[in-house]
Structure formats: C-alpha cells, structure tokens
Write a structure and sequence with these properties.
Layout (H helix, E strand, L loop, with lengths): L2 H11 L4 E4 L6 H9 L3 E4 L3 H14 L4 E6 L2 H5 L1 H10 L3 E7 L21 H7 L3 E4 L6 H15 L3 E6 H4 L19 H12 L3 E5 L5 H13 L4 E3 L14 E4 L6 H8 L4 E5 L20 E5 L13 E4 L2 H11 L32 H11 L4 E5 L3 H9 L5 E3 L1 E3 L2 E3 L8 H12 L6 E7 H7 L1 H5 L7 E7 L4 H10 L13 H7 L4 E4 L2 H12 L5 E5 L9 H8 L2
Parallel strand pairs: 1-2, 1-3, 3-4, 4-6, 5-6, 7-8, 7-10, 8-9, 10-11, 11-12, 13-16, 13-17, 17-18, 18-20, 19-20
Antiparallel strand pairs: 14-15
Helix pairs in contact: 1-2, 3-5, 3-15, 9-12, 10-12
C-alpha cells in the first residue's frame, strides 16, 4: 500500500473523521487519498486558524485534531496555533508535505533545507513533543506509532513532515499498536486529602472541566462535608450554579467578594485541574497561593517545583476522585442532573440614553437573560475575556457527558484564539442542539476575519459578537490606569456588518440600546451569524488587577 493510504487508514481507524488545513501541491497526494476514502477535508483560510480549529474539534470530540499544511510558509503560518496547543495541552497531529526528496537540497520554492537560511524544524521542535521528517518510507510506520504515543502521553501536539514523493511510495503494512499511558494513583496522597476533608478544613477550586462522573463525586463530597466550592476562570461553567455550596468564581477579573471570603480562614485550598497561574490565582494572591494550597493535576507542566504550596499531586483526576470516594466510604450517590435547572435571574442595571453606545457590562448581563439554555460561550483574549469572567454566570451543558459552558484561552493569550476554537466546537457539536457564541474584539477580528467567511458554507450553530470600539481596548484602559496616557491603541472605524454581508454572511450592526431592543429576538433566534456591537470605548474594563500585576517587579 502507498504511504498516503496507510496514514489515511490509520487516522480513520483511530476515529478521525475530519482533517483541517490549507491545500498546496506538496500535500496533495495525502489529500487525494483522504478524498478517495471519504475522510472529510476541511479547507480553511489560513494555517494558523486551521490549527486552532483542528485542536478545538479534537478536544470537543474527546479525540485529537489533525492539521495539514505545506512546508515553508505553511509551517511558519501555523506556529502560533502549534504553540497554543502546546501550552493549552491540546492533542494534535500536524502532517506537512515537503518538496520531493531529490529536490530537498535545491533552492526551490517552499524550501525548508539549510539553503533557505531558516531552520523550520527548529521552530516546530520547540512547540511539539515529537517532530520527525520521513526520509525513508519504511520508517513511516514506527514514526507514526511513536508520534501518536507521545501525543497521548503528554497531551501536546506532534508533527510529521513527509516529502511529496514518499507519499506515493509503497510500504509494508503493519498492525499499529498504540501504547496506552496511564498515571498511577499515589495512595499516600489519597489519605492526605481524605484526612483534610474529614476535618472539614478545606475549600475546593475547580480550575478545569470535569467529566460528569467526576463532577458528581466532587459535588457529593462537598454536600456531605459542607465544603465550599469555587470555580476559577479556566474552570468556569463547570459547577452548576444551583448547587448549594457553590460560592462563585475566584481569579483575575472576577468578583472580589470571593477573594474576601477566602481570606477569612486558614483552610486548605484544593485545586482540581489547571495550573496555579496568574489568572487562576488572581496574580498569585496569598489567600490561595500559600503553604495550605494543594494542586491535583493531570499535566506535569502545570507543576511549578519551586512554588510555596503544600502539595503538587500528578494523577488522573477521574481515577483519583473515584478512589477518594471509595476510601471515604460514601454510599450516597449524587446526580448533578437532579439540580433544578432554573435559569438564574440576572440583575440588569438600567441603561443610559437609548441613543448612546452600548455599555459592555450591560450587554453581557442582558445577553445572559435571553440566550438559549444549551449554549457554550467563548471569550477571546482581551476585553472580551475580562468582561466574560466578571459577568458570565452559567451552568454546564449536559449532553451524554458534561460540557463546560464557559471557555477562555490563556496559554499564550493570542488574539483570535476564540474564533478558531469556537468554530471547532461548533463543528463538533453541530447535531446536539448546542449553540456556540464567540465574543471577540475588533482588533482580533481584523487579524482573522476571513475564517468566518470560509465557514459560512457549513451553516454552523454559531454567532460571533464583535465588541467594536475602534481600539485595542485592554491596551487603552490599561494605559489610562497605569501611566495616565494612551497611544498606539487606535484601530480603524469599521462597519463589520457591511464587510461580512459582502462575504455572504448574515450580519447586523447594533449601535445603541434602541437597536438592541428592536433586534433582540432575531439575535437569539440565530438569524445573524455576526453581531457588530458598537460599545462605548470609555467604559473601563475590569482589568485593574492585571495592570497591577504588570507593574509588579
């Protein structure tokens, strides 16, 4: 069989049904085989967004994403997406097509050899856990096997580069055996957590999404031992807001009352999931970042060996909670679905004159009062994320499993992250009755808007809400707070409604409160794919703690 056929067959046997990227002559033999075998090729506008969409789609499907590109410029274009997957612990396989072996040392187009003067392999090696160029077709089987194993073990991206002629070479088919990587349970750690819980001297912090079975165990323990439970920004949208011990969101940009409650006691703080980074600890605030803090995480890279905390526990969180439930001998079962799913009443302050631009805080509260119950909201980096963390209150979506309803990307905090991730999620959940919302600033849209036009043909259940203030808002307000001056923040005044309509995308422009009231029903019926929301640029976003952290030495 041909090398290209082997790759496609193995991907499909692993449950992959879509691959994402930008076509080009060097990758075409692989894509032709995918086309012939009905492995769906999702052609994107840019390699950067293709890699973001792929990793999001793979994550939502509980598999891994597959992205393709050509060598040279194609590889360099996806470095941002690769780095995001690396830092965010997202599994993704990148397959790049290179010049034919006989031309690898010549000065041809899309050259990645030493003659180009740039080492593309060095770039990619830094943001993958495994990267290999195939020079002998007989090596493909072992390289593919190792790549998948490394990706699964580390939950990070891998890369295979294949010259065009090798795609066409015949190889001997072998049976692929993917080694499974498991994390061991340390029973000493289990007993430590058991004793802390029994003494009722702890608080729980959910800093990443949980599977429903694990969520039920955690809520059951919280209820039986009366343990307060918080979310952090990266875990927001995981705990049902109807749960009696839920206290709210603690972290950067969130409501300060939770921090004040937490500082009143000397209890252990047990974090389940993500790292103790700036956003989850509100700038490493001493109330949670101290010698009574315990981090239970699945990723080694989340652990800082030099931190002052009480304990770092590297384990499988699902297995850890199952074992914890057993040693606590809890017979009572808890089902998070039993909680009353009453829509929380959002307090909406009266807005100013109907002719004025929209207050972002008002809009976020207004939006939550009308949005569909089954929805997931993505908040792109910048002011969108800050407002989302401060104002958004939503319970998880239950569909076969528990789906986190609030999403942010804090890895390398790249602008435009939310656009690619929301498209990937919309493709993954298209047939589940779940609507996707992406809140994104005009600065981010100007970097990545072409992808929205590309994906209109899929008729995805997604709405993009553009916070349009003709400015890099976080920069502008940060400068006003920190240095009392502002510069290099302004953006062109854009009418995104007209722009997207010219691309065949149904869009609406909302300039003020009067517009919002007039068009709100169509907004929530999903008629519009893009909402161009003109917000008041002078309303300060909730970023004072972030500015304080930037000024710290």
């Amino acid at each position: 069989m041909k090398a290209s056929e082997f790759i496609v067959d193995e991907l499909m046997s692993l449950g992959i049904d879509k691959i994402f990227g930008v076509n080009g002559g060097l990758i075409e033999p692989f894509l032709l085989e995918a086309y012939n075998k009905n492995l769906e090729i999702v052609h994107c506008a840019s390699e950067n967004q293709a890699s973001l969409i792929a990793q999001s789609y793979g994550y939502e499907k509980e598999k891994f994403g597959v992205c393709f590109c050509v060598s040279g410029a194609g590889q360099s274009n996806l470095i941002n997406g690769l780095t995001t997957a690396y830092v965010e612990n997202k599994k993704m396989l990148v397959i790049s097509g290179d010049n034919a072996s006989s031309k690898s040392e010549k000065r041809n187009l899309q050259n990645t050899s030493k003659f180009s003067g740039v080492s593309f392999s060095d770039f990619i090696n830094k943001c993958t856990v495994y990267s290999k160029k195939i020079t002998n077709p007989d090596d493909l089987f072992d390289v593919f096997n190792k790549a998948i194993y490394k990706m699964e073990k580390h939950s990070r991206p891998v890369h295979i580069e294949i010259p065009k002629d090798i795609f066409e070479k015949e190889i001997i088919k072998k049976t692929l055996k993917i080694k499974k990587h498991t994390k061991k349970i340390n029973y000493k750690n289990l007993l430590t957590i058991k004793n802390i819980i029994k003494k009722q001297k702890t608080e729980f912090f959910c800093s990443s999404p949980l599977r429903k079975e694990s969520l039920d165990i955690l809520l059951n323990i919280s209820r039986i031992y009366n343990i307060p439970i918080y979310e952090t920004p990266t875990g927001k949208g995981t705990i049902p807001k109807e749960f009696e011990n839920y206290k709210g969101c603690f972290g950067l940009f969130s409501n300060i009352i939770y921090e004040q409650e937490s500082t009143k006691n000397k209890k252990f703080k047990i974090f389940f999931g993500n790292s103790l980074n700036e956003i989850n600890t509100n700038g490493w605030n001493e109330c949670v970042f101290n010698d009574k803090t315990i981090l239970i995480t699945e990723e080694k890279q989340n652990i800082d060996p030099n931190s002052v905390i009480f304990e770092n526990i590297l384990t499988d969180i699902d297995d850890f909670l199952k074992n914890l439930n057993e040693i606590l001998k809890l017979k009572n079962q808890f089902n998070s679905l039993s909680l009353k799913n009453n829509k929380k009443q959002i307090s909406i302050k009266k807005h100013h004159n109907g002719e004025q631009k929209i207050n972002p805080e008002y809009f976020f509260n207004f939006f939550q009062s009308y949005k569909p119950e089954k929805s997931i909201a993505f908040f792109d980096n910048g002011n969108s994320m800050a407002w989302g963390i401060k104002t958004w209150e939503d319970s998880p979506v239950f569909y076969e499993n528990m789906i986190q309803s609030f999403r942010i990307g804090i890895g390398i905090s790249s602008m435009g992250w939310g656009l690619g991730y929301s498209i990937g999620a919309a493709m993954a959940h298209k047939d589940k009755g779940i609507h996707i919302y992406c809140f994104i600033g005009d600065g981010s849209i100007l970097m990545s808007s072409q992808e929205i036009a590309f994906f209109r043909k899929y008729n995805l259940p997604i709405t993009f809400i553009i916070l349009n203030d003709s400015s890099l808002g976080m920069v502008y307000h940060g400068q006003k707070i920190a240095i009392k001056k502002h510069f290099a923040h302004d953006l062109p005044t854009c009418n995104f409604k007209d722009y997207f309509k010219s691309c065949g995308v149904n869009a609406v422009r909302i300039k003020n409160q009067k517009d919002l009231n007039k068009k709100k029903h169509k907004i929530f019926e999903g008629d519009y794919k893009v909402i161009d929301l003109v917000i008041d640029p002078e309303i300060p976003s909730p970023i004072s703690d972030r500015v304080k952290n930037l000024k710290a030495k």
